[in-house]
Amino acid sequence: MKADEKFTYETWPAAPEKQTLEGKNKFLGFWLFLGGETVLFATLFATYLALKDSVPNSEMALAKDLFEIPLVFIMTMLLLTSSLTSVYAMYHMKNFNFKKMQLWLGVTVLLGAAFLGFEVYEFNHYVHEFEHTFTSSAFGTAFYTLVGFHGGHVAFGLLWFITLMVRNRKRGLDLYTAPKFYVASLYWHFIDVVWVFIFTVVYLMGMVG
Amino acid sequence: MSTYAQKKGFGATIWDYLTTVDHKKIAILYLIAGGFFFIVGGLEAMFIRIQLAIPANDFLSAGLYNEILTMHGTTMIFLAAMPLIFAFMNAVMPLQIGARDVAFPFLNSLGFWLFFFGGVFLNLSWFLGGAPDAGWTSYASLSLASEGHGIDFYVLGLQISGAGTLIGGINFLVTIINMRAPGMTYMRMPLFTWSTFVTSALILFAFPPLTVALFMMLFDRLFGGNFFDPLMGGNTIIWEHLFWIFGHPEVYILVLPAFGIFSEIFAIFSRKRLFGYSSMVFATVLIGFLGFMVWAHHMFTTGLGPIANAIFSVATMAIAVPTGIKIFNWLFTMWGGSITFTTPMLYAIAFIPTFTMGGVTGIMLASAAQDYQYHDSYFVVAHFHYVIVGGVVFALLAGLHLYWPKMFGTMLSEKLGKITFWLFVIGFHLTFFIQHFLGLMGMPRRIFTFNKGQGFDAANMVSTVGAFFMAVATVVLLINVIVTIVKNERIGNDPWGDGRTLEWAIPSPPPFYNFKQLPLVRGLDAYWIEKMDGKTEMTPAEPIGDIHMPNNSFIPFVISLGLFIAAFGAMYHGNHAWGIPVLIIGMLITFGSMFVRSVKDDHGYHIHKEELMDDDKGGKA
């Protein structure tokens, strides 16, 4: 079976992302990579918790002074919804409906970009209203590193989705492109899961002191 | 004669190696680069021993000594031992499971070039204002106080080469899970493949903490971060934890493949099935698991408190159990076997008492209360050289002799090999045995000199003499390699005569597609089973058909080069205006070439059935 063979709705396999050996390898390799990423974020979380509210003098802003629920709630909703829309995209991928897949991926990208916009606003807000910067304290360094690493992942994910959508806009789905879309959506879910932890550990636990 | 085996010019050969995605060629690249860094690290060791040969020596200044000491450790662990292990994993593991290549040939090449550029970057520090000087562990308070760019070279160089290692680990895991030949169940995999598997899992979970720790150090030193600065609310102990959460699994990353190589050697040269195969697999997995539970035994004197120390102490001692299982299994493999004392076997036999001694001092150090006595003394130096040289380096030398014929199609001289062995083993014990006593007598590690009349003079001289034995052994090894290459006497599939696993069933070196037809594996030691049935080759599991192969690519080289350039920008952005632009240009090269890789289709090519049938080289299966 050639990777670039043409398919129809009837001949499209149930799990196109794992149909070829290359696809299977990609699928497994990416899951393993996410395992490594989990440890990476776990390390960042541990460091953040160790350095939370650790500031050089008592006048500096602490977590409970900085965070406000409405903003992060909106961000959380945007990112969770984008995960849902990427599931829709994969649903259409499995049904060999390229147009609808592209559409839902587009929605995912828009939601992700909106999330990123809010994050930029949020950081800007902390820097200018509270003088809470990357260099102002160990707390600041740990906060911006953890949340910034996540933001960097979001940005990379967006570029990845856009590259895939533009590159494949004309040729559609086959067993060569299907694993690419699938793996990108896995990455997107992972980013979403990490955010759930950031929302809980950084923001909710930060609010209660 | 196949069309694929044409003679090539020198330039074409270089280009071929720069772009290759073939696991066997990447193995050779790892072997050359790792061998080069091994010699660099060895020279650094010689400088250390010359400086310490006599009291109050002024061969090296204190500052230069710190740099050499740091680079010796860093080079040996990251740039010599790991790549040499990767060389054997790449050369042998795909053959052992009956695969035509690794799962991600492109990433395999990327992993090598990342390691290579990281290693070169780190070593350029010698010429650009001084090497790192805070020890290979680079504890944060020392590192942050270190002037110049030495530590920045350490951080950025290890970051780049660490990424390569992580990629390699994932690649091997997927290869072993997805690409085993028909009949090759998990419990039929050779022990070296098993140890590659467990090691790769350790790499996957141990390297991300190092990545994060290096990022933190990078941010603190170059971008105004405060992770480790207590005045800004930071905590210097975080580095210690993260470094050792990586660092302890790292020693198992090094030693498990060594165990794997020795397990192959004991079985081959005792002409017996490995004793207790399933318990060996179990012990390997258990060591891998426990390896993550013991990092704080490097920090007993940090002051974590008696409860933490007790827990980590007991967990550490527990590792002696699976390791003991292995030692006894090797002994029982030899028991009643018909042993031939080839060079690899000599190393294997010397390994058992040596490694056991290192293990016993390990148990001594694992006792937290005693550790306060041994801490930071030469006793520790003796201990870890017994496990790392006695375990890992012996295995690398043994593996080099064992697998040289498979990698190059020629045989290293047994005579010179045995000379190397005796010189190296005698030199090793001469150097390090006496260091146990130096440590117990109170000589601290990491000092650049000592005074007369402290009772350290004679022992240090003995140690230095031993080091020269090892240096001579290495020179003999190099002569051996050169002589072998010049003589170029070709050998057949199974030069040792008693090969048990799949790699010995195919030509040396194997054709670039490895197996013309994938072999059918009927049990543990698949090739041995066929031999016992009176056959000379494997039974094929499939008819001859087209073979899909990946295309060569120059992109891995460019991706790695981009990071190499970016690292200079990151390092000098505080001193020079061109720093940030160079950082951006480097990242653009890296991400740009990743983008090109992403949008340009690369389906590979097929070797057609007819060409395979003409190819007399491939042999069956």
TrEMBL record, chain A:
Keywords: Cell membrane, Membrane, Transmembrane, Transmembrane helix. Its main location: membrane. InterPro entries: Cyt_c/ubiquinol_Oxase_su3, Cyt_c_oxidase-like_su3, Cyt_c_oxidase_su3-like_sf, Cyt_c_oxidase_su3_a-hlx, Ubiquinol_oxase_su3_dom. CDD domains: Ubiquinol_oxidase_III (cd02863). SUPFAM superfamilies: Cytochrome c oxidase subunit III-like. It is found in: Cell membrane. The keyword Glycoprotein does not apply. Belongs to the cytochrome c oxidase subunit 3 family. PANTHER family: CYTOCHROME C OXIDASE SUBUNIT 3 (PTHR11403:SF9), CYTOCHROME C OXIDASE SUBUNIT III (PTHR11403). This is Cytochrome c oxidase subunit 3.
Automatic annotation (TrEMBL), chain B:
Its main location: membrane. It is found in: Cell membrane; Membrane. Its EC number is 7.1.1.9. It catalyses: 4 Fe(II)-[cytochrome c] + O2 + 8 H(+)(in) = 4 Fe(III)-[cytochrome c] + 2 H2O + 4 H(+)(out). Pfam families: COX1 (PF00115). The keyword Metal-binding applies. The keyword Nucleotide-binding does not apply. The chain crosses the membrane at residues 27-48, 68-89, 110-131, 151-179, 191-218, 238-262, 274-295, 307-332, 344-366, 378-404, 416-438, 458-483, 554-572, 578-596. Residues 9-522 form the Cytochrome oxidase subunit I profile domain. Pathway: Energy metabolism; oxidative phosphorylation. Keywords: Cell membrane, Copper, Electron transport, Heme, Iron, Membrane, Metal-binding, Respiratory chain, Translocase, Transmembrane, Transmembrane helix, Transport. It is a multi-pass membrane protein. InterPro entries: Cyt_c_oxase-like_su1_dom, Cyt_c_oxase-like_su1_sf, Cyt_C_Oxase_1, Cyt_c_Oxase_su1_BS, Cyt_c_oxidase_su1_bac. Cytochrome c oxidase is the component of the respiratory chain that catalyzes the reduction of oxygen to water. Subunits 1-3 form the functional core of the enzyme complex. CO I is the catalytic subunit of the enzyme. Electrons originating in cytochrome c are transferred via the copper A center of subunit 2 and heme A of subunit 1 to the bimetallic center formed by heme A3 and copper B. Belongs to the heme-copper respiratory oxidase family. This is Cytochrome c oxidase subunit 1.
